[in-house]
Design brief:
This protein has 12 helices and 4 strands.
Length: about 290
């Protein structure tokens, strides 16, 4: 039987082997096959949920395991700062992602069901089977309480609960990835194949990091390495565990995630350490009087 204690060395090897690297080619902007505009009249692209102190506080408590595994208090914080929102707005504008809906800590099942029906860029079979399941899951287990930043290709919606720009860029990177695919439903279904999600996550992670490099934002690049590499590590360990073991209890699942996050933290901090800080502005010497 596959044991969680055997997962750490294997995850370390796989994360080191498959972790997204820094940019080697010019960053590519734009999305070739973005879906149709299915917004309501005068509907904003980015919507915020109303703050509820008790609900958001409970959500923060439930997200403690994720915060600890990724060692980031802004994960599933259920509050998104204006500065983080601006970073996402710039990314969407730069890449021409005009039809992607973004919900910041918002629970809107009615809006998601409507978008599912209207999103004709995904075939009806995919929308009314796998898409319906995804929206039903969103409806029954709301991220507004349980967290879990994600992109839903069946509704073309990015759902955000964290206050880290790198996480937002990563999820928007999934939207950009899908916008480039003609057969979006088929592409979404491929995630059911073992280890294929690692490719999808690598695409989104690489795009987020390369974007910060192209924009010459060393602080954002460092943050992306520190949060996205361990997050990618959890996907690696999760895929390995699902293939060789399971089903797992809740505590075993946390151990699996931690086994992947640890090598991700190591790799991410090594990459961040090699990022040069932005040089301080030169100060003109004052003329002597």
């Amino acid at each position: 039987m596959f044991r969680c204690r055997n997962l750490l060395p294997l995850s370390l090897f796989l994360v080191a082997l498959s972790a997204p690297s820094c940019a080697t080619v010019p960053y590519t902007y734009g999305a070739a096959h973005e879906g149709p505009d299915i917004f309501k009249k005068n509907e904003p692209q980015i919507s915020r949920g109303k703050p509820y102190a008790f609900l958001d506080g409970l959500g923060e408590v439930l997200s403690l395991p994720s915060k600890l595994i990724l060692w980031n208090r802004d994960v599933d914080r259920h509050r998104v700062s204006p500065e983080t929102e601006v970073a996402l707005q710039e990314y969407l504008a730069d890449n021409g992602l005009d039809t992607v809906k973004v919900r910041l800590n918002q629970y809107a099942p009615g809006g998601e069901w409507r978008r599912l029906v209207k999103n004709k860029s995904v075939g009806w079979f995919y929308r009314y089977t796998f898409g319906a399941l995804s929206v039903a899951f969103y409806t029954i287990l709301p991220g507004r309480l349980f967290g879990g930043d994600h992109y839903n290709p069946f509704t073309n919606t990015v759902n955000i609960y964290s206050d880290d720009p790198a996480i937002l860029l990563h999820e928007a990177g999934h939207a950009k990835d899908f916008a480039r695919r003609k057969l979006k439903g088929t592409y979404a279904l491929l995630r059911a194949i073992p280890f294929v999600p690692l490719f999808n996550e690598a695409v989104a992670t690489t795009d987020a990091i390369d974007y910060t490099i192209d924009k010459q934002q060393p602080a954002a690049e460092k943050d992306a390495y520190k949060v996205l590499y361990p997050a990618y590590g959890t996907y690696v360990s999760g895929e390995v565990a699902a293939w060789f073991g399971g089903p797992f209890s809740y505590l075993e699942s946390l151990a699996v995630a931690l086994a992947g996050a640890i090598p991700g933290h190591i790799a991410g901090r090594i990459k961040a350490a090699h990022v040069e800080d932005e040089p301080a502005p030169l100060v003109e010497p004052q003329a002597s009087q």
